[in-house]
Amino acid sequence: MWKQILNKIPRKHQKSDRDQTRNPNLVPNLSSPSSGRANAANSVAKRASAAVFPSSVIAGIEPLLAFKDVPSSEKMNLFISKLSLCCVVFDFNDPGKNVQEKELKRATLLELLDFVSQNPPKFSEPAVLASCKMCSINLFRVFPPNYRSSNTSSGENDNDDEPTFDPAWSHLQIVYDFLLKLVTSTSLEAKVAKKYINHSFILKIIDLFESEDPRERDCLKAILHRIYGKFMIHRPFIRKCMSNVFYRFVFETEKHNGIAELLEIFGSVITGFALPLKEEHKIFLWRALIPMHKAKSLGVYFQQLSFCVTQFIEKEPKLASTVIDGLLKYWPITNSQKEVMFLSEVEEILEVINMAEFQRVMVPLFLRFKQCINSCHFQVAERALFLWNNDQIVNLIAHNRQIILPIIFPALEVNAQNHWNHAVLNLTLNVRKMISEMDEALFLACISSYQKEQEKSNLIVEKRKQVWERLENAASLQPITENTAVLVTQ
Fold first, then answer.
1. What does the pLDDT read at residue 249?
2. Distance CA 427, CA 29 (A)
3. How far apart are CA 99 and CA 19, in angstroms?
4. Which of 26, 181, 259, 403 could form a Cys-Cys staple with 116, CB 3.0–4.6 A?
């Protein structure tokens, strides 16, 4: 239909025909000497746009004109008209429906994106309003109550699930690119835009992180980050909204598609925190970030979460012992993959921890390391033994060897005697050698203490065995009568 209408527009010469074939939005120049034909063409173009889109959304200058065909004084009015044209939303679930209209809208969106990207004049307040309205109509939608039921961040951390892609992405991507260019444009004044990129607008942007389409979440991440940087007045509100998402995830649902992206933004936010840290930021670390380690889907966002935690410690080193206490509280017992992640994060913390904070937590921490070294899962045991490859950690151990080595040594001896995995066995022997070279006298004392403990343990086992033998013998001498329990030996 759109091509048939355009074919009725009078042509001036062959070049115009070729131009219109390449660009269906191109109409004859209104300043042409052939004013009658130009006016006729303009009239046809208006009827065409009205035929394709509802006339109620078309206001001001004819939206089908190209930006280069209007004077500079009219460009902002044309910009607003094209934005109004793009407020029509199509159904992309049916690929064969409104094909030409969809292509026209896409071409118009590309024009708008190009205009915003080319350092236009200062955006007027009506232009900002129209821009936010167009973005809101195209982007903001409400997810159904059961939308989270199939998300990739829920439950079992199944990374093999295929992501869901929005069929309307051919339009959505351009709208997101437009919004990003608009927010970052020097032509957009924050004092004007803050009235329309307001709390309601920002909250809807954050709600969109629930999307299952990873491309959409990536766009949202860039946009929200830029909004946070440009609109200082909105920063506390953005932090509050993101915190609410994290709290809801931790204490209610443990399901959300955009946790990784939101944490990535928050990691950048933390780097900008002023010192000393506010109490609200420390509370957020303790009540939200640390409990997020307990979720089954930790693997989806672990890298971003670990970065946030490390940023807090770099800002205020005294928080290191607090974080380690929290990790020990939520330490996984039956999930070996999560246990490996915890060991990796603890290593990063120990690389930046100061001696005083380390000494506060070293006893419970190395008691946990002891259990990890003796783990039947070779990856857990291997990762725990790899800690001795870190010079900073070895230095911390060396300065506190009188306390740490007696804790760790029994685990090394158990591994050296009977661990089933050869890689773990070799690592154990290497660590054992490092300890002996670190302090030979203490090493010999640990051996002696271990042998004595083994002798005590063997003696206890032997006594227990003798007690059971006496009980069994005594029971065998008793006559068996009705209602009498019989002790069965194995």
1. 94
2. 79
3. 22
4. 181
Between CA 190 and CA 231 the distance in angstroms is 6
- On whether the CB atoms of residues 395 and 404 are closer than 8 A, the answer is no
Average pLDDT over residues 291-296: 93
**Tens digits of residue pLDDT in 359-372:** 999 999 999 999 99
Cα angle 195, 202, 245 (rounded to 5 degrees) comes to 150
CA dist., res. 409 & res. 249, Å (int): 40
Greatest distance between any 2 Cα atoms in the chain: 127
Rounded distance between C-alpha atoms, residue 327 and residue 333, angstroms = 12
Tokens representing residue 302 in the block: 């672990």
Residue 259 vs residues 208, 351, 376: alpha-carbon distances, Å: 12, 26, 32
CA–CA separation, 312 and 285 (whole Å): 8
Residue of 248, 256, 250, 251 lying closest to 148 (CA atoms): 256
pLDDT confidence of 14, banded at 50, 70, 90? very low
3-state helix, strand, coil in the chain (%, to 5): 70, 0, 30
Tally: H helices and E strands in the chain: 22, 0
Q: pLDDT averaged over the chain?
A: 83
Alpha carbon distance 84, 130 (integer Å): 7
Residue in the structure block whose two tokens are 């307001």: 198
DSSP state of 212: S
pLDDT at 322: 93
In contact, 424 and 374? CB cutoff 8 Å: no
Whole-number pLDDT of residue 121: 85
How many angstroms separate the CA atoms of 125 and 189, rounded?
10
Q: Which of 51, 45, 43, 40 is nearest to 63 (CA)?
A: 45
Query: Hey, what CATH topology would domain 317-471 get?
Result: Leucine-rich Repeat Variant (1.25.10)
